[in-house]
Fold this sequence. Notes:
Number of helices: 11
Strand order of the largest sheet: 10-9-8-13-11-12
Shape: globular
Helix content: 40-55%
Distance between the termini: 33 Å
Amino acid sequence: MAIxxxxxxxxxxxxxxxxxxxVWVVPLKVQFGEDAFPDMLDHAGFFQQLAGAKELPTxxxxxPDDFLPHFRRAQEAGDSLICLPMASSLSGTxxxxxxxxxxxxxxxxxxxxxxxxxxxxxxxxxxxxxxxDQGKSAPEIVEELERxxxxxxxxAIVDTLKYLxxxxxxxxxxxxxxxxxxxxxIISLGNGQLGLVGKGVGAKGSLSALVKLIGDTxxxxxxxxxxxxxxxxxxxxxxxxxxxxxxxxPHRHEVHSVGPVIGTHVGPGAAVVVYLERED
Length: 280
């Protein structure tokens, strides 16, 4: 019996990557006025358009009909399917997947609220693929994912909090404080909760502050790499990667561009680091 894995486009898999990994991706959409396009396409073009936009674009969640064909394909084959959408606290996409499961009426579909997005979600998908390739059953994979998601550590430096505030992801007080202090804020996402956890003056100060938040060691689960990400350009991301390598020593890593849906809410110039903490 095969095990299919489904996620949404905020996991930032390129189409060829998803196909190679055997992952089905449900796209969310970004809309500038009357023009809408899928989240998976043309990251660089999106940020160029965002820079010149007078108003922020809007983002739309996936709906049940986006998930249903994948669920029915698994049902017709008599196979299992594990679906990890972005955090239910950030989007209604997870609820859409649950509705699609009800419409499908197939018990072989398993929905896991990832409590993550972007590279945190990608990490969990990679873990699911790893466990699948090791021959684990769908219930075994779901059990480990439910445990692992609380160990995902995501820290990001953003150039400004105005995008998160305008998108309704942070309260006005946090956004105003960041602007007045003229700092680069550091945010975290864990267990579905987005928060402001630190700050630094300029690129050097923010990188130093983020590394201090990691702690004395980089206690990551070596089954997976450390993930680095960026929006629009990778200058700050490269600095973050270099400093963590210098501070904690060489480690396996990947670098990925963050796509339009999440880019709408964090804006250009962001850098992110994500890893799965060891369960010591």
